[in-house]
From TrEMBL, chain A:
<keyword id="KW-0547">Nucleotide-binding</keyword>
<dbReference type="GO" id="GO:0055085">
    <property type="term" value="P:transmembrane transport"/>
</dbReference>
<keyword id="KW-0813">Transport</keyword>
<dbReference type="InterPro" id="IPR003593">
    <property type="entry name" value="AAA+_ATPase"/>
</dbReference>
<dbReference type="Pfam" id="PF08352">
    <property type="entry name" value="oligo_HPY"/>
</dbReference>
<dbReference type="GO" id="GO:0005524">
    <property type="term" value="F:ATP binding"/>
</dbReference>
<dbReference type="GO" id="GO:0015833">
    <property type="term" value="P:peptide transport"/>
</dbReference>
<feature type="domain" description="ABC transporter">
    <location>
        <begin position="5"/>
        <end position="255"/>
    </location>
</feature>
<dbReference type="GO" id="GO:0016887">
    <property type="term" value="F:ATP hydrolysis activity"/>
</dbReference>
From TrEMBL, chain B:
<dbReference type="GO" id="GO:0005886">
    <property type="term" value="C:plasma membrane"/>
</dbReference>
<dbReference type="Pfam" id="PF08352">
    <property type="entry name" value="oligo_HPY"/>
</dbReference>
<dbReference type="InterPro" id="IPR013563">
    <property type="entry name" value="Oligopep_ABC_C"/>
</dbReference>
<keyword id="KW-0067">ATP-binding</keyword>
<dbReference type="InterPro" id="IPR027417">
    <property type="entry name" value="P-loop_NTPase"/>
</dbReference>
<dbReference type="InterPro" id="IPR017871">
    <property type="entry name" value="ABC_transporter-like_CS"/>
</dbReference>
<comment type="similarity">
    <text>Belongs to the ABC transporter superfamily.</text>
</comment>
<dbReference type="InterPro" id="IPR003439">
    <property type="entry name" value="ABC_transporter-like_ATP-bd"/>
</dbReference>
<dbReference type="GO" id="GO:0016887">
    <property type="term" value="F:ATP hydrolysis activity"/>
</dbReference>
Length: 337, 330
């Protein structure tokens, strides 16, 4: 199957300005050389700690930020530097859903106006047809048709998130970028929204990029998972593989930190000392090795720790600080090959 | 004297609204044993934070007040104390770790000043001693180079470090009871793990009791000895952490436990959900409120279910529809 989305060495650097002349004094490397692909109907989970660049990456895919370098291909067309006018018809295919249902819906718009807006912009059908479509969409996301004439404040958090889903799928997109879609919801409501997203994906064959910090949720919904650390993907594999046999040290630490809802569960926690390094002045070598003070950190200075396919479909950054000796030897051989 | 540091008996807290006084907490009772951690869990709006704020009398006034009930701390009912005595206990003997460290800290004061303020209020230390003690407390919560950090402002610290400072403030006077209101919700999972470990470690060292308020059942399972499950302003079930997780009786507790996505479940499988949402506080019935959510007709929900002890230390709201397992000791 050909890829729906192909991202190549994407970079998003934000300038940092200082002094009286507001001269650029540095840059925040929020996304720093990320490559991956997404197939139609597939879910790619994106996890990492706050500040790792996962949301920025999501916004770059929709050109809500203009990427500094790299390339984004949507169905083989390069959209990275396409003009906004040319991009507009393509926006149908890729939509976004945001975290906070209270802030991402305009409180002065009725639900009808909110859900109809993308249809209006893309000039689909007549006004009357669009109104009917809105009600169909609401039904599809499990809201009554009468919800159309209410306002966002009349709904609970979970219902508001359903309105967000209705708006995102209004144009029948091929891909949805979901930025923390359930983090603001209670656990019982969260599972309702997750079930809805899974059902809609099957029905409409949409691909999802699912950004979240809750690893259990990501595992549940994703086919493949990419783990980001300091603007880079450090590991990417099938979700079962990544959860049961992670290879990168950071992935291991992240997984071991999940609190288990079982009081008799024996913890075997890998402690991560220190903080995520600043993306303004990232360490010269392995960012993870730097955090854990790895003895081999000095070796990695200036090293290009690109992703290698260590097992079929299992990609990991070739970094001696983060891999077992065996994996590192394998990775080193793959890099030089 | 009993082994409980805190006993809450039939607490009722009300808020004034356009529709009169509404009950956010409706007859809540539970105990906090000495040196143990009691978790309060429930969905947003179930009254868990209001319960905590009622204990330390931090309700927004005059909109909120404790209508009745007892809050017995070390054998004394806090509600009978006058202002001055309450002041000594709150912040000194009972302290709070708030959720959002950025709002709990004052952005225009140095960290050292904020920690020593607590010490100056509650102990007889001089300014200099308080400052030295603050450095020691910062060190004990794992802040590197505390003698330098103490001169910094909150914005100079990361989220995890700020939360450590909030914990340091709460623990400065070596309290007997700490109320942690969603202490790790705003933090990343790796930082959360560190903070929970830290609270556990300090608790063991200092022998204090903790009330852990959270919506995250994982956090409850990892940190608590006992669990109080709240729904719509009432306690529906309460017991030892192993009992609650392994042998839950109330339908709400079961539903809550079932709705967590498990790491072992097959991907994209149907998650179990709880239909509907919590009713608005103005629409609460007197009878079983979880039945109300399950669309049992309101006319049938006129009588409040009894709260009974079905085995030692395991209490449950005795609603026949919600408890498939008929209580043995009724």
């Amino acid at each position: 199957m050909s890829d729906l989305l192909e991202v190549n060495d994407l970079k998003m650097h934000f300038p940092v300005r200082g002094g009286i002349t507001m001269k650029q004094v540095g840059s925040v490397k929020a996304v720093d050389g990320v490559s991956f692909t997404v197939k139609p109907g597939e879910t790619l989970g994106l996890v990492g700690e706050s500040g790792c660049g996962k949301s920025t990456l999501g916004k770059c895919l929709l050109r809500l930020y203009e990427p500094t370098a790299g390339q984004i291909d949507l169905e083989g067309r390069d959209i990275t530097r396409m003009s906004q006018a040319k991009l507009r018809p393509l926006r149908k295919d890729i939509q976004m859903m945001f975290q906070d249902p209270a802030e991402s819906l305009n409180s002065r718009f009725s639900v009808r106006q909110i859900v109809r807006e993308p249809l209006d912009i893309q000039k689909i059908g007549t006004r009357k047809e669009r109104d009917a479509m809105v009600e169909d969409l609401l039904e599809k996301v499990g809201l009554p048709r009468s919800a159309a004439d209410k306002f966002p404040f009349e709904f609970s958090g979970g219902q508001r998130q359903r309105i967000g889903v209705a708006r995102a799928i209004a144009l029948n997109p091929k891909m949805l970028v979901l930025d923390e879609p359930v983090s603001a919801l209670d656990v019982s409501v969260q599972s309702q929204v997750l079930n809805l997203l899974v059902d809609l994906q099957k029905e409409l064959n949409m691909a999802y990029i699912f950004i979240a910090h809750d690893l259990a949720v990501v595992k549940h919904i994703s086919d493949r998972v990419a783990v980001m650390y300091l603007g880079k993907i450090v590991e990417l594999a099938d979700s079962d593989v990544i959860y049961h046999s992670p290879r990168h040290g950071y992935t291991k630490a992240l997984l071991s930190a999940i609190p288990h809802a079982d009081p008799s569960y024996e913890k075997n926690r890998i402690r991560l000392e220190g903080e995520v390094p600043s993306p303004i002045d990232p360490p010269k070598g392995s960012a993870f090795g730097h955090r854990i003070n790895h003895p081999r950190y000095d070796e990695t200075v200036g090293m290009d720790m690109k992703l290698v396919e260590i097992a079929s479909g299992h990609w990991v950054a070739a970094d001696p600080c983060s891999l077992t000796e065996e994996d590192w030897q394998k990775a080193k051989a793959l890099v030089s090959a | 004297m009993s082994d409980n540091i805190l006993e809450i008996k039939n607490l009722v807290t009300e808020f004034k609204t356009e529709n009169g006084w509404l009950r956010a907490v409706d007859g809540v009772s539970f105990d906090v044993p000495k040196g143990k951690t009691v978790g309060i869990v429930g969905e947003s709006g179930c009254g868990k934070s209001v319960t905590a704020m009622s204990i330390i009398d931090l309700l927004p006034k005059p909109m909120g007040h404790v209508k009745r009930g007892q809050v017995v701390f070390k054998g004394r009912d806090l509600r009978q104390l006058d202002h001055k005595e309450y002041y000594k206990i709150r912040g000194g003997r009972i302290s709070v770790i708030f959720q959002e460290p950025m709002t709990a800290l004052n952005p225009v004061h140095k960290i050292g000043r904020q920690i020593s303020e607590v010490l100056l209020l509650h102990t007889k230390m001089s300014k200099k001693e308080a400052w030295q003690e603050s450095i020691r407390v910062l060190d004990s919560v794992g802040i590197p180079a505390p003698d330098q950090r103490i001169n910094e402002y909150p914005h100079q610290l990361s989220g995890g470090m700020r939360q450590r400072v909030v914990i340091a403030m709460a623990l400065a006077c070596k309290p007997d009871l700490v109320i942690a209101d969603e202490p790790t919700t705003a933090l990343d999972v790796t930082v959360q793990a560190e903070i929970l470990d830290l609270i556990n470690k300090l608790q063991k060292e200092m022998g204090m009791s903790v009330i852990m308020i959270t919506h995250d059942l994982g956090v409850i399972a990892e940190t608590c000895d006992e669990v109080v499950v709240m729904y719509a302003g009432r306690v529906v079930e309460r017991g030892d952490v192993h009992t609650i997780f392994k042998k839950p009786v109330h339908a709400y507790t079961k539903a809550l436990l079932n709705s967590i996505p498990s790491l072992d479940a097959p991907r994209k499988s149907e998650l179990s959900t709880i239909p509907g949402t919590v009713e608005g506080i103005a629409d609460f019935v007197e009878g079983c409120r979880f039945c109300q959510r399950m669309s049992v007709p309101v006319e049938q929900l006129t009588e409040r279910p009894n709260f009974i002890e079905i085995e030692k230390g395991h209490w449950v709201e005795n609603c026949p529809t919600c408890n498939s397992q008929r209580p043995a000791m009724a």
